[in-house]
Amino acid sequence: MRRPECLLWLFAAWLLAAGPGSGAAAEEDRRLTVVTWGGAYEAAQRAALFAPFTAATGVRIDIVRYDGGVAALRDHLAAGGAPDWDVIDMIRADARTACAAGLLEPLDPAIPAPAPDGTPAAADFIDGAFGDCFISQLVFATVIAYDDRAFPGEKPDSIADFFDLERFPGRRALRAEPVGLLDWALRAYGVPRSQIYDLLSTERGFRLAFRRLDTIRDSLVWWRGGDEPVRLLTEGAVAMASGYNGRFFHAQVMGGAPISVIWDSALLEHNTWAIPAGTPDRDLAARFIRYATSAGRLAALANRISYGPARLSAQRRVGLHVPTGIPMRPHLPTASRHRALALEKDDAWYARTEALRRRRFEAWLAEGEDRGAAAPSD
Amino acid sequence: MAVGARGREATSQESVEPAAGTVRASVGRIVLMSLVGLGVGAAAALAAIAFVDALVWLNDALLVSAYARVQYEGQALLLGAATLLVPAFGGLLVGLIVTRLIAEKRGLGPPDAILVAQTRQPAPSLKSGLASTLAALLSLGCGASVGQYGPLVYLGTLIGGLVGGLERHVRDLRAIAIACGVAAAIATAFNAPIAGLVFAHEVILRHYSLRAFAPVAVAAATGHVMANVVFERPALFLVEFGGVAHGHEFVLFAVQGVLSAFLAAGFMALILAAGRLAGRLPLPAALRPALAGLVLGAVALQVPEVLGIGKETLRFATIDGAFTMPELALLVAAKIAVTALCVGFGFVGGVFSPALLIGILAGALFGLGVAEFVPVAQSGMVPYAICGMMAMTSPVIGAPLTTILIVFELTRNYDLTIAAMVAVVFSNLVAYRVFGRSLFDVQLRNRRFDLSFGRDKAILGHRPVQAYMTDDFVALAPDDTVDALRRRLKAVGRAEAVLVDATGRYGGLVALHAAMDQPGETPLSTLARTGGVVFDEETTLWEAMTRMRDFIGEAVPLVGADGRLLGVVPEGAVIGGYMEAVHDLRREENAAA
Asked: What is the count of structural domains for chain A?
C-alpha cells in the first residue's frame, strides 16, 4: 500500500516542478506524437491545444489520423519496437477495451490539474471520467441530423422518425459499425432509455432491433469517416444521417449547410486521452494530458467545436464560438435540455458485446446482400 | 356573586384538568407515532434498497441477468452450466438455511406479516426473520422463479416488529409499526408511495383508522424520499401510452379481467398443490429447493425467460411484435409451472413478481388474440398487457386498490389506470368466488386463521377459549351420591357439578334439578348428562360462541385430548371474551390520534 502512494506523491511533486514554461529551451527538439481523428475536430484541437502547448513548452506535436476503434492501436503496437504514438484520443468504450487488452499505460488519476478555484479534479470532472488507463476530456454526441431541404413540411424530431419512411421519405446514412444503430432501433419501439442495454442483452432484443433496421434497409447508405455524413447531407445524397454533433454544428455555422440536429436519443460518449503501452515519452505524454485537460484549454476547445467539456469548471467557461461569435453553450451535448433527451452510451456493455455486435451486424449486412443479389435474378 | 363566580371557576377548572391530560397524551402519541413512522420508514427503505442492490449484484455475478450473460454469449457451455447449476446449488443452500436456521422451517412472507399484525401472538424470532431474508436473497440471486416483494414485506415486518416491541404503553403499536415497515419497503421498491400506504392497510392492517394512517403515510413518504431524493432510483416500469382510443375496449378489459381471474386461481391452486406434492415426496425438505432449481435450470436452457424476475421480458411484453402468440402461450405456461414448483418446493420468495410477469404475458396474448379474432379497433398492445398484468396480480395478493394505484404511480397515465381498474375489479370479483380473497388468505386459512369473513371471525377464530377457563367448579366422583351432591352444591350456591373419576377423566355434568327427586344414595353416574356442549384445547372463541347457542347450564367443561377435565368455561366468560375482542377491534379501527 505504501509504495504506490509514495510514488504517486513523487510524481505529483515532479509534475509541479516541471510545469509549463520551465525547461522549455531544453525541450525544443522534443516531439510528441498525438493520434486523433482529423477534420474539423482536429483543426479545433490544433488551435486550442496543440499550438498553445508547443508555444508554452517548445515541444512540437506530430499528428497521426485514425478513424477510432481499437484495431489501429493494436496494429501499431503489434508492428514491434517502441511505439511512435505517445498520446491517443480514444472513445471511452474503446479505451476500456484497449485498457483491458493491455494496449494502454495505466494512467495516474493525479494527472489532471485542479480547477482554477482549487476544486480537486476528482470533484470537477463529470461522473465516469476517470478510468484505469484514460481520462475523459469531452462529451460528444452521435446524433441524427436531417437535410432541411428534404422536409419542407413536417420536420422529424424523434428517433422513431428516423425509422419512419412513410412520413419522412428519403435515404438514411448510418456509420458502418455496430454502434448506436441497435440502441436507436430499440428506442424507436418506445423502450425507455434506462432499459435499452438490458433489453439489448437478450436475443429477443437483438432480433427486434434488426427487424426495425430491416424496415429501412433498402434506404440505407453507410459511412465510415466522421466528415462523410456532413457531405452526404449537404450534397443532398441522403435526407437523414447519423453523425457527430460537432461536425454537424461546424457545417451549419461555418459552411451554412441546411442541416438540423435531432437531439432525441443522442448517444452520449466521452472522448478520452490515453497513452499507448510502451511509449518512451510517457512523462511528456502525461504533461500534455495535464495541459489539454485544464479548464481553460477545454473551454477554448469547446469555443471552437461543439463538444461539451468533461469538467464543470470548463463548462462554466464556455463562451462564444471563435470564428462566428455564436454562443456555444446551447449547442453542447452537455446542455441540460439535450442531456434530458440523451441516451448515455453504456460502454461497459459495448466492451462486453464487441464481438457479438460485430458478428450479428455483419451477418445482417450479408443477409441483405444475399437478398439484393437474389432480387435481380428472380 | 363573588362566591358564585369562584364556584363556577372551580368547577370549570375541574372539568378542564382531565381534558388537558388527554390532550397532552394525544400530542405525545402523535409525536411517538410520527417518529415510529419516520424511523421504521427510513430503516425499512434502506433495508429494501440494500436487498434489491444485493439481489441485482448476485444476478450479475451468478450470470442470471441477461446483461451479465451477454458477455459470455460465445461460450455456450459456460452459460449452459451456469443456467443448470446456479439455481440447483442456490436451492441446496436455501434448503439448508430453511431447515437449519428458520424455526418455522419455511420462508416467512406476507401471511406471517398479516398474522403478526392481526393477533397478539409472538412474532417469528429475529433469527428466523434474518435467515428467511437471507434465503430469499439467495433464491432470487440464483434466479429462482419467485418474487422479491414477499421477502421485502417480511423485511418491513421484521423492522416494524422490532420497533413496535419497544414501547408497550400504546395499544396496537406493534401492528402499526409493522404496517409502517411494510409500506416503506413497498414504497421504496416500487417507487410507489401511495400504493405502499394502501397496501399496508388493504393487506396487512385490514382497516383504515386515522391512528394508523398517519404514521404509515409518514413511513411511505420516507421510503419515497429515500428512493427518489437520496438514492435516485429509476422507476420500476416505464411505459409510453397514448390513451384508450375506443370506448368498446373497456368491455374487452372487463372480459380480460374475468379470464385473468381463472388464470390467477389456477396459478394459486397450482402453488398449493406443488406444496402438497413436495410434502409427499420421499425427499428431505432440505433437498427440495435444489430439485426445483435443477428442473428450473433445465427449463431455462430452452426458455431462458423463466429465470428470475424477468424485467426484460416484462418490458418486451408491451412491444408490438416482440412475441408471437405461441411464444406467449408457452411462456405463460412455463412461468406458471416453474413458479409453482419453486414456491411449492421451498425456495423462499413471493409470488407478486412472477404474477406480474405471467399477467403481462397473458395480457399481451389476449391483446394479440383480440387483434386476430375480434373484428374491432384496438389501441395497441400496451393497455391489454398492463390490464393483464394487474388483473392477474390483484387476486393473488388480494389488493385491488393497491394494484390500481401501482399502475397509476408507475405509468402516471390516467387512461391506463382506468383500464386497469375495470380489469382488476372484475378479476377480483371472480377470483374471490373461484378461489378466495388472496393466496395469503388461503394460506392463512390453512393455518386456521380465516379472514374470509372479516377480521372479527379471524381473530375470534384464532383465540382459544381455554384462556377463559376457570377451575372454580364443583367436582364430584361418579360414585358419589346424590346426598353428597346436594350438600356440596348448597354450600357454594351452585346448581351444577362436574363428574371426574379418580384418574381425572371427565364423566359428564349433573344438574341439581335432575337430582331433586332421586333417593339420596343414588350414585351420580346414573344421573350424569354427557354429550352436551364440551370444549377442548383447540376450541376457539368463535366456535365457543356458535356452539353455546344451544347450551343450557352454568359452565362448559373443557376436556383435553386424553379425556381429562382441564377446567370449565363459564358462559359469562365466553360472552365477556367475545365482547372484549369485538370491542378491541372496533376501538382499533376507529382510533384517532
From this structure: 2
